[in-house]
Structure formats: structure tokens, C-alpha cells
Predict the 3D structure of the following.
Amino acid sequence: MTDPQQPSPTTPVNAEGVVAALDLPQPAYRVLFALRSRSEPGGRVEMGQSQIAALLGLSRPSVTSGLRELILARLVTKQRNGVYRINAMLAGYEWGSAEVSPKAAST
């Protein structure tokens, strides 16, 4: 018998609810929402820590600390300096929504 309180495997995940349930410091939430609002399809963001700090009016150490919290929570990964990827669950697009060109599909 299944537990009615547990979502079924096909139930969509409410990503905002998951993030809200985390106990992150306020700068981490601000950094996450700034990255998310500027992400490309797939969650890729090209934005340095100084740019994030200027955008949010935070100190660079606050941004660094916020990013560290997001990385530890596996909400963001650092690909290289100034390039981050938001967890696919939060990236703001649906899987399979991008069209594939015939040329890309044949390679």
C-alpha cells in the first residue's frame, strides 16, 4: 500500500518548495535567484562573482559564501571561474522542450 503523503514517482517536483525548505543564508537565496534569472536554457550562467556582487549590492565575500552554500547544497555547480550551472531541477525549463535540428539529430 502506498503512503498518501508521499508523492508518486510521476508527481512533478515543486522546485521552489524544495529551495524554500532549505535553511540557506539570505545571501545564498539572493545569489541563486540572480543566477536563475540570468541563466541560459539548461541552467548555464556566465557571470563572475564581482558582477553578481554589484548586481545584488552585496560584498564579494558574501557572494563567495552564498555560492559555496549553493554548491554544498548541490543547487549550483561551478564549471570554471565565472561560469556556473544551476541544478536542472531549478533551471527554469522543461526537459524535451528544445527542438533538435535534423542535422544535430543525425550526428
In short: The first strand starts at residue 44 and ends at 46. Residues 23-88 form a domain with the Arc Repressor Mutant, subunit A fold (CATH 1.10.10.10).
